[in-house]
Amino acid sequence: MEQFKEWWESITQREQQLAIASAVVIGIATLYWGIWTPLTDQLAESKKQLTRAETTLSWTQEKATLLLQAGAGKPQARRGNLTQILNSSARKSGITFSRIVNKNDKIEVWITNVEFESFLKWLTTLSNQYGVSVLNADLAKTNQKGYIKVNRLLLSH
Questions:
Q1: How far apart are CA 101 and CA 108, in angstroms?
Q2: What's the CA gap between 149 and 111, in Å, rounded?
Q3: Are 107 and 101 in contact (CB under 8 A)?
Q4: What's the pLDDT score for residue 75?
Q5: Using CA atoms, how far apart are residues 83 and 104, in angstroms rounded to an integer?
Q6: Dihedral of CA 30/35/37/38: which sign?
Q7: How far apart are CA 65 and CA 152, in angstroms?
Q8: Res. 72: pLDDT tops 60
Q9: What is the mean pLDDT of residues 61-79?
Q10: What is the pTM of this model?
Q11: Amino acid 102: pLDDT
Q12: For 69-77, which contacts have Cβ atoms below 8 Å and span 24 or more sequence positions?
C-alpha cells in the first residue's frame, strides 16, 4: 500500500484524474460485460426456452384432445376373460395354438406355424378391440415362405 501511495503522489494531478477516469471506465465495462450482458443473454435464452416449452405444451394438448376425440385412452371393453378372448379371436383368425399356459393375469401361447400377416392382424384385433397387449414375443422364421413360428408370446389384459 505504501508503494501505491508513493506512486500516486509522484504522478501529476492530470495523470491522477486520467487514472481515476480509466478506473471508472474499466469498472463500468467490467459491470456491463461481466455481469449485465451475461444476465440479459441468459434471460433472453430462458424466454426462448419458455416459448418452446409453451409451444410444445399446446401441441401436446392439441394432439391429446384429438386422440381422445378419436377414442384413444378409453378403457377397452372386456368381453370375457383373457383365455376366452384369445381362443375366440384366434379361432376367427384361423390361428391354432400348440400350447397355452395361464399365468395369473397373463397368458403364454405357442403357435407352431402361422402366416405372418394373419398373426399381425390377430394381434392388432386383440389390442384394438380387447385391450390385450403383448408383453414379450419370441418369433422364428420357418421354411415355409410368409410363415413364422411363435416360440413364446406373453399377453396381458
A1: 5
A2: 6
A3: yes
A4: 47
A5: 11
A6: positive
A7: 37
A8: no
A9: 64
A10: 0.50
A11: 87
A12: 75/131, 76/129, 76/130, 76/131, 77/129, 77/130, 77/131
CA–CA separation, 54 and 147 (whole Å): 48
Contact 132, 155 (CB under 8 A): yes
- Give the type of residue at 137: A
Kindly state the cell numbers that stand for 107.
397368458
Let me know the angle formed at the C-alpha of 29 by 27 and 35, rounded to the nearest 5 degrees.
95
For residues 97 and 35, give the distance between their C-alpha atoms in angstroms, rounded to a whole number.
72
Mean pLDDT, residues 33-39 taken together: 95
Average pLDDT (132-137) is 87
* Whole-Å CA distances, 125 to 32, 89, 93, 155, 156: 66, 8, 10, 13, 14
Measured CA to CA, the distance from residue 135 to residue 108 in angstroms comes to 10
**What is the reported pLDDT for 78?**
53
- 17-53 b/e (C-beta count within 10 Å ≥ 16 → b): eeeeeeeeeeeeeeeeeeeeeeeeeeeeeeeeeeeee
SS3 83: helix
Alpha carbons 33 and 23: distance in angstroms, whole number = 15
Q: How many residues does the chain have?
A: 157
